[in-house]
Amino acid sequence: MKKDMSVPCGDGFINLRVGAIIMKKGKILMVGNHIVPGYLYTVGGRP
Questions:
Q1: Residue 3: its pLDDT value, please?
Q2: How far apart are the C-alpha atoms of 24 and 28, rounded to whole Å?
Q3: CA contacts within 13 A on the Cβ side of 42
Q4: Rounded to an integer, what distance in angstroms lies between the CA atom of residue 7 and that of residue 23?
Q5: Residue 7 has pLDDT above 90, yes or no
Q6: How far apart (Å, rounded) are the C-alpha atoms in residues 39 and 32?
Q7: Which pLDDT score is estimated for 2?
Q8: Does residue 46 carry a pLDDT above 80?
């Protein structure tokens, strides 16, 4: 079974995530989706 990277914190947990800002020739890579058109975010996620 695959498990998320979590750390106990008080009565809950902190989920560890990663993110990246990728730049090339003065442009930044952004990601969007079909659920919320026009909403962009940087790449990342959690294991």
A1: 67
A2: 7
A3: 10
A4: 31
A5: no
A6: 6
A7: 64
A8: no
